[in-house]
Amino acid sequence: MTNYQKLMNNFEVLKLNSMITNFKTVQDKIIENKVSIVDSMLELTNLQIEFSNLKRKDTMVKIGAFPHKKRLTDFDFNFQPDLNKNKLLEFESLAFIENKENIVFYGNSGVGKTHLSVSIGISAAEKGIKTYFIKCNDLIQNLKKAKLENVLEKKLKNYSRYKLLIIDEVGYLPIDKEDSKLLFQLIDMRYEEKSTIITTNIHFSKWNEIFRDEMLASAILDRILHHAHVVSISGNSYRLKNHVVKD
Question: Any idea where the AAA+ ATPase domain is (predicted)?
């Protein structure tokens, strides 16, 4: 084995894939006296750091379990002109996470609540913040299963470790009292410790109908809204904007 092959092998063992890819190009620059050894190593390591950062971002986004990769730049603010675009762009600074604040997107189905929550979540994940997206019904089913298997505390701690948890579609399906208690435990565990984004199509005054218990609904809302930014979207559905009604 030549020294070149040994070097490539060392790069592979150290998982320096970018250095393997770019070594020949940088080597040619050295041979042509275009760069010094120090400058060439700096270029190689910079490229490796850039590659590693991109890979880390991709991994964090995959962990987030987002249903799509839509960004705020993909959002049609012209279709929802009442939205404060600057406020939403401000959320991408992620200051609300540092302040342990929540965001609640409220509006009818199809107005862009999930799109907005996902775009903020992706921004957080790409900056190395542990983020996770889950629909409310799936979350409750997972907690119910954990309770039956006597691992509820472990599951609650697992969901609580995310600095940003996105709970989508709260209120789309009814939640019985026992399930409401499970959700309350999670919300209570995250209260003033981590940030949560909620999307819902049900006005807060009717949450007692969702959770089938006025005291539980009040307790959940109290913890969600205490440090929260509420974004109300009153526009039309994106899904129906191209729908043509025929006579």
Answer: 99-231
Overall pTM > 0.70? yes
Domain that holds residue 38: 3-61
39/156 same-domain check: no
User: Stretch 222-237: mean pLDDT, rounded?
Assistant: 90
Number of H helices, E strands in the chain: 11, 5
- Domain count for the chain: 2
Taking the C-alpha atoms of residue 245 and residue 247, their distance in angstroms, rounded to an integer, is 7
Instruction: Tell me how far CA of residue 199 lies from CA of 25, 34, 160, 184, in angstroms.
Output: 49, 56, 18, 16
Residue 67 is assigned to a structural domain of this protein: no
pLDDT bucket at 240, cuts 50 / 70 / 90: low
Domain end among 34, 61, 88: 61
Non-local CB neighbours of 245 within 8 Å, separated by 6+ positions:
none
Bridge partners for 165 per DSSP: 132, 196
Cβ neighbours for 242, distance < 8 A, ≥ 6 positions apart: none
